[in-house]
Design goal:
Number of strands: 8
Family: Belongs to the succinate dehydrogenase/fumarate reductase iron-sulfur protein family.
Structural class: alpha/beta
Keywords: 2Fe-2S, 3Fe-4S, 4Fe-4S, Iron, Iron-sulfur, Metal-binding, Oxidoreductase, Tricarboxylic acid cycle
Strand content: 5-15%
EC number: 1.3.5.1
Largest sheet: 6 strands, mixed
Pfam family, one: Fer2_3
Number of helices: 8
CATH class of the largest domain: Mainly Alpha
Bound molecules: iron/sulfur cluster, FE2/S2 (inorganic) cluster
CATH architecture of the largest domain: Orthogonal Bundle
Enzyme class: oxidoreductase
Number of domains: 2
Strand order of the largest sheet: 1-3-2-6-4-5
Order of helices and strands: EEEHEEEEEHHHHHHH
CATH topology of the largest domain: Fumarate Reductase Iron-sulfur Protein, Chain B, domain 2
Distance between the termini: 54 Å
Radius of gyration: 22 Å
């Protein structure tokens, strides 16, 4: 385990007006580079940072000022693109939505890749199995008949039926927090079911039966053990377990 320290920046200097907002925080990051070693190691980085900043800011500081080889995904930096889900202090979160002050910076903050998907390098995992499950549930509107000459109307009540599951940003925090998925990557996983739910309960869609049959598979909804990890992990506050339960009920009653 190596420790690297960033010297205080001008922002970290004690100002005459008052105490510096900066603290020294230790980020303990799980590093993996298959070109160097088959084993992952924990590496500590100490940085001066304002605790009101986010874990993503800390990762940028480490990458840009201490070790340019640190590898992670991010894009929007505002909780929209879903690319920076990672395990922070043992819990799946978006690095761009996690404030350092909220995760006890008095102790080393652990950061590692999400579980259940193959780690390619440092915090980057192979998302392909996750997106394959997403594609498998047909996450698009299916209709038959002639193209309408105007928009397809829907009542506010019908729209409300699947409002929660439209919020998914495909970050994989739910699927990679699911013990069933850890043990068997064949399971569709919560995110795919959430996205199936979004169309199954859409009154304009005509492929609900098809999607239900796909999820009736041995790797489908029945694998869910209702541990609620997915609901706890979702950064969008989606009631993931509830959505899975609704799909199970629709499979039994064939009413949706
Ligand atoms: S349901 Fe929530 S946790 Fe799962 S992929 Fe969508 S946004 Fe991420
Ligand atoms: S970087 Fe886009 S959600 Fe965090």
């Amino acid at each position: 385990m190596s420790t690297e320290t960033l010297e205080k920046t001008e922002g970290g200097a004690q100002s005459a007006e008052g105490a510096s907002p900066y603290i020294t925080a230790t980020f303990r990051i799980r590093r993996f580079n298959p070109e160097i070693s088959a084993d992952a190691i924990w590496e500590d980085f100490q940085i001066e940072i304002d605790p009101k900043e986010r874990v993503l800011d800390a990762l940028h500081k480490i990458k840009w000022e201490l070790d340019g080889t640190l590898t992670f995904r991010r894009s929007c930096a505002h909780g929209i693109c879903g690319s920076d889900a990672m395990r922070i202090n043992g819990r799946n979160r978006l690095a761009c939505k996690t404030l350092i002050k909220d995760i006890n910076p008095e102790k080393p903050i652990t950061v590692e890749a999400i579980k259940g998907l193959t780690v390619l390098k440092d915090l980057v995992v192979d998302m392909e199995p996750f997106f394959q499950a997403y594609r498998d549930v047909m996450p698009f509107l299916v209709t038959t008949g002639n193209e309408p000459t105007r928009e397809r109307l829907q009542s506010a009540e019908d729209r409300e039926r699947f409002d929660d599951t439209t919020k998914c940003i495909l970050c994989a925090a739910c699927t990679s927090s699911c013990p069933v998925f850890w043990n068997d990557g064949q399971y569709f996983g919560p995110a795919a079911i959430v996205n199936a739910h979004r169309f199954i309960f859409d009154s304009r869609d005509e492929a609900g039966e098809q999607r239900l049959e796909i999820l009736n598979d041995k790797d489908g909804v029945w694998r869910c053990r209702t541990t609620f990890n997915c609901t706890d992990a979702c950064p969008r506050g989606i009631e993931v377990t509830k959505a899975i339960q609704e799909v199970k009920r629709a499979l039994i009653t064939r009413r949706y």
